Amino acid sequence: MRINCRVIAIMLFVFLGRAYADAPLPFQQEYEPPNGKGRVVVVVSGQTGPGNYAYVAKDFAEQGYYAVLVDGNDFWVQIGGSEARLKGVITRAQQSPHALPGKVAVVGFSRGGASTLTYATRMPELVSAVVVYYPATQHIWNTDNFVSEIKVPTLMFAGVRDNYHNCCRIETARKLADAAKKREGKVMLEVFEYPNAEHGFIIKSSKAWSPTDTADAFRRTLSHLRQYSGE
């Protein structure tokens, strides 16, 4: 009997996707706003884990948001069930006593930015705004088709000097920006470039850390969230 390797691969992917989707939701770290309640911001870390992004979630909380920090490795686009798990994290956050009613914002970085850009942008019923910092984009083959699926206002920060494993190249970011500009109607993706920034430019423990670019990106992030969250 001949074995169809492609069929087996598809069946295995579906099986693993269901297994991941049915698994318990990933661990989250909560950051409460000063007054106890706020609009939800889900922060999805990069590959190095939540530790490097804890201060970002804390900064959101200090701005009045209820921030939930999760590990981006749990939502990698090459793992089955990632979209379902991200949706589960969002709905769990919405049910918190610290959450104000309404849609959430999702902010992702690097590997977590890949899943945020791929999945959160396609959840207009749950997500009001998306921001991604130096997201991994090597999985995006057709930028026109990819951008056509974006249904949530999205802001993307890209470092021109980012050459980390060729995962987040400025060339792809520019192709995505061009594809967004070509579409009719409202532009759903805006790409902002930092000429001197490298990968991980907001990680304080990284050699690439740029305080100036970090502060500017956070200011733009807050403006984007406030514009689309109805505040």
Commentary on this structure:
With 231 residues, this protein is of the alpha/beta class. It has one domain (25-229): Rossmann fold, CATH 3.40.50. It contains 7 helices and 7 strands. It has helices at residues 5-22, 54-62, 82-94, 110-118, 143-148, 170-182, 211-229; strands at 28-31, 40-44, 66-70, 104-109, 127-133, 154-159, 189-194. The protein has a 7-stranded mixed β-sheet with strand order 1-3-2-4-5-6-7, with helices on both faces. It starts with a helix and ends with a helix.
Order of helices and strands: HEEHEHEHEHEHEH
The Rg value, from CA coordinates, equals 17 Å
CATH architecture assignment name: 3-Layer(aba) Sandwich
Total helices: the number is 7
Mean pLDDT: 90
- Percent of residues in helices: 25-40%
Can you say what the CATH homologous superfamily is? Alpha/Beta hydrolase fold, catalytic domain
The count of DSSP E runs of length 2 or more, i.e. the number of strands, is: 7
The neighbouring-strand order within the major sheet is 1-3-2-4-5-6-7
Outline the biggest β-sheet: 7 strands, mixed
Find the structural class using helix and strand composition. Answer: alpha/beta
| DSSP strand content | 15-25%
Task: Please provide a brief summary of the model.
The protein is an alpha/beta fold and 231 residues long.
List keywords for this structure.
single chain; 231 residues; alpha/beta; Rossmann fold; 7 helices; 7 strands; 38% helix; 17% strand
